[in-house]
Amino acid sequence: MKKINNKVIYIFLVLTLFFSSCSLSSQKELVENTSLYQKMLVGKWYGKDKSGQIGLLIFNDDYSTKMVQKGMVLDGSSIGGKVTWELDEYKKPMHLNLVMNLNSGKTEKLLMIIKFIGKNKLQLQIGESSLDRPISFSKNNNENQMIFIRQN
């Protein structure tokens, strides 16, 4: 067997320390970005669908939410429970869920994808059914996607 040179071991240790510190730095950045995306989402957002219907989304910093679309309201009082939001910014595109916790104990989720197009503009797409999450944004499917502008 060949003897390993001490210089090679030293270089290996230095590189290992360097790369492990890079991964810790990346993890810290991810945590900071997490709170940034959540902070960016909080507020009132208005948009129009392809038929001209106005949609409203309100994301509160206590994670409660309200959605108004085509005359229908989705919030805690309309479902007899509580509606909250969850954002998974580690997914590409980001996953946004509206979680409906009914007083009966039943929980349902409305699955969406979302991306920010600047600080005050976002694109959102809902799945074909409540059990479906889109994989990516569609250039052809304007039925289930909207652009929203922050209003506050």
Indicate the topology.
Layout: H1 6-41, E1 43-48, E2 54-59, E3 65-69, E4 72-74, H2 76-79, E5 81-88, E6 94-102, E7 107-116, E8 121-126, E9 145-150
Antiparallel strand pairs: 1-2, 1-9, 2-3, 3-4, 5-6, 6-7, 7-8, 8-9
How would you describe this structure to a colleague?
- The protein has 152 residues and is of the alpha+beta class.
- It has two domains: 1-41; 42-150, Lipocalin, CATH 2.40.128.
- It is built from two helices and nine strands, in the order αββββαβββββ.
- The longest helix is centred in the N-terminal third of the chain and has 36 residues, at 6-41.
- The radius of gyration is 22 Å and the shape is globular.
- 14% of the residues are buried.
State the secondary-structure class: alpha+beta
CATH fold description of the largest domain:
Lipocalin
* Number of DSSP strand runs: 9
Could you tell me the strand content as a percent range?
35-45%
Overall CATH architecture of the largest domain: Beta Barrel
Sheet having the most strands? 9 strands, antiparallel
Average per-residue pLDDT, rounded, comes to 80
- Which class of the largest domain in CATH terms? Mainly Beta
Q: What is the count of distinct domains? A: 2
Radius of gyration: 22 Å
Q: Assign an overall shape.
A: globular
| Poorly predicted runs | 8-31
The percent of residues in helical segments reads 25-40%
Discrete helix count: 2
Q: End-to-end distance, in Å?
A: 70 Å
N to C succession of SSEs? HEEEEHEEEEE
Q: How are strands sequenced across the largest beta sheet?
A: 4-3-2-1-9-8-7-6-5
